[in-house]
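F.,

This is the one I mentioned.
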């Protein structure tokens, strides 16, 4: 069973600024990839651009813009491109099913609030030695950020909610913990009701 756990990050002022820049740059990458897909379809005789093509362009984008796109994790940028690809897959699935399609939208900086890191150690690494109740997460381009508590993680996401920052750990093979029996019964038996 996969479960996600959310823990509060405690970034410094400089780290908070770097986290904001990371979100803005990933948002810019997402919107640029969306624009490329729209333009290719509209202006280039209905040509489709796929995830593989956009992922291959990341090296050139990072080399062209080392101060912004080049400083973040390549894997997290691939995850952002995959996020757009999933939005298009869902769009085409809904079109095929005859549902209301909902074309993928451009994201404003305030609406783009999560950066995913596909695996621990690839642009984002947890410090396995706790420092009291505090451990640290090293984020490429940000540094070591304090966080309270950890579990073994499969994927790591950095998320902004309002003015707070969180790390979300998707943990694999978490045993289910059954609730204690209370003896209380909830629900309504409609069959035994009389009118």
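My design for it:
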């Amino acid at each position: 069973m996969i479960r996600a756990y959310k823990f509060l990050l405690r970034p410094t002022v400089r780290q908070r600024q770097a986290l904001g820049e990371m979100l803005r740059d990933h948002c810019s990458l997402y919107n640029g990839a969306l624009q490329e897909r729209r333009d290719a379809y509209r202006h280039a005789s209905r040509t489709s651009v796929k995830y593989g093509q956009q992922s291959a362009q990341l090296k050139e984008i990072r080399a062209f813009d080392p101060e912004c796109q080049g400083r973040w994790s390549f894997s997290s940028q691939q995850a952002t491109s995959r996020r757009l690809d999933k939005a298009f897959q869902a769009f085409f699935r809904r079109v095929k099913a005859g549902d209301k399609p909902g074309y993928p939208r451009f994201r404003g900086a305030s609406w783009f609030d999560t950066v995913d890191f596909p695996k621990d150690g690839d642009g984002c690494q947890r410090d396995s030695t706790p420092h009291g109740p505090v451990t640290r997460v090293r984020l490429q381009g940000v540094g070591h950020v304090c966080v309270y508590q950890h579990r073994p993680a499969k994927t790591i996401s950095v998320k902004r909610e309002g003015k707070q920052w969180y790390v979300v750990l998707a943990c694999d093979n978490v045993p289910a913990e059954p609730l204690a029996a209370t003896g209380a019964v909830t629900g309504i038996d409609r069959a035994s009701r009389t009118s």
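Residues 13-43 form the longest helix (31 residues).

Talk soon.
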